[in-house]
Structure formats: structure tokens, C-alpha cells
Amino acid sequence: MSDVSAKPALESSSPAAPASGDISVVSIFLEFLLIGATSFGGGVVAYLRSGLVIKRGWVDDQKFVEYLAISQTLPGLNATNMAVLVGDRLRGFFGALAAIVAICLPGAVLMLIAGALYQSHGDKPLVTAMLRGVAAAAVGLILATTIQLGKKSLAHVYDLIFVGLTVFGVDRLHQSVPRVLIAVGILAILWYHPRKFREVSQ
Fold first, then answer.
1. Which of these, 66, 72, 107, lies nearest to 89 by C-alpha position?
2. Which of 64, 73, 158, 182 is buried most deeply by CB count within 10 Å?
3. Which residues does 82 contact at the CB level (< 8 Å), separation at least 6?
4. pLDDT single digits (tens) 14-56
5. Which residue range is the domain that position 194 belongs to?
6. 37 CB-near residues (< 8 Å, 6+ apart)
7. Which 3 state secondary structure label does DSSP give 16?
8. Taking Cα atoms as reference points, which of 28, 26, 25, 8 lies closest to residue 16?
9. What is the mean pLDDT of the chain?
């Protein structure tokens, strides 16, 4: 009885995700279609978090970070990998299929149009300036999302050390992202697992 009463208190800090059976495949398709159609400038991680965590509450920040880590480790784009993971969590195979088709469809159509226009107008100064502005805005979106997630995910100073090791490995040592994530992940397991084991034994 004490376990049942304690559970809501532990989960009160974040909104409870709706049951997967309450979410239709159509809802998944429409939400990812909106994300795919509005995630301009490459800051798709920010749009994914805004739609899936803040707006819909389909996943919480902790689960979002876990899915993001998996998406970055596996081949492919973060957005499509995330769509498959979230869609599968919500409605299984058909949810994953709806999510990946929806998030790719707007970009595919728009890129066909943009590619044709860029061929004829891409060398104009106004177009070049606009693209530079969009690129800067995308960096800002990614930075803002990183700060928001970091406040909730980085609980100890050791987490900042792992962040620093990851940045150093990719930026300075020029190692691939999967290789760095695997190496830092192993270090995190070796560091945290013995600590948790000692706490339980005490």
C-alpha cells in the first residue's frame, strides 16, 4: 500500500504520459507531419521536444534524452530515428510507420521545390544572406534545447565531466559520434554502477 501511495508523489514533477491506447495513429501522423513541416533551419531537436514533451506530453524529458541518445548512436537522421522510437512506443509498428512517413513527407516535398529554385536563384546575395541567418537561428534553437534538457538531466557534477569528455572526443580528437558515445557510456556504467551497488548494500 505504501508503494502505491508513494508512486504519484514521485511522478508529480512531470506530467503523466497518456496511455498508448488513447493515442491514435492519425494523431501520431498529424503531429509528426506538423513537426516535419515547421522544423526549419535544422533545429529539429527543439521542435521534437516542443511537440512531443511540452505540447503532447507523450514522453517526458528523461525518456526524450534516452531516445535522443539512441537516435544519435544509430545510423540515420536524429529526427527519423526519434520518430520511429516514439511512434513504436505509442502505437507499435503502425505508429512508427505513421511517424516516419509524416516527418519525412513535408521536407521531401519542400526540398524538391527548394532544389529547383536554388538551381536558378541560389547565387543571389539575398538568398545567401537568408541561408546564413537561418543557420544561425538553428544553432540558437539547438543551444536553447540543450540548456533546457541539461537542467533536468545533469544531476551531478560527474555528468558535466561526461559532457566535457564527449565534446573533447568529437571536437578535439575528431572521433565519430557513435564511438565517443559508446566510450563515454562505458565509463558512465563503470562509474555509476559501483556507486549504486554500494548505496544498496548499505
1. 66
2. 64
3. 48, 67, 68, 71
4. 455 565 568 899 999 999 999 988 876 567 888 898 999 999 9
5. 154-202
6. 106, 110
7. coil
8. 8
9. 78
DSSP category for residue 53: I
Q: Rounded to whole angstroms, what are the CA distances from 95 to 20, 27, 146, 150?
A: 10, 9, 27, 29
Q: How far is CA 39 from CA 24, 43, 79, in A?
A: 23, 6, 10
What percent of the chain stands above pLDDT 70?
Answer: 79
Q: What's the total number of domains in the chain?
A: 2
Considering the domain architecture, whether residues 127 and 140 belong to the same structural domain is answered as yes
For residue 201, pLDDT over 70 is answered with no
Residues 130 and 200 in one domain: no
> Are the C-beta atoms of residues 29 and 119 closer than 8 Å to each other?
no
Q: pTM of the predicted model, to two decimals? A: 0.60
Cα separation, 178 vs 172, in Å, equals 15
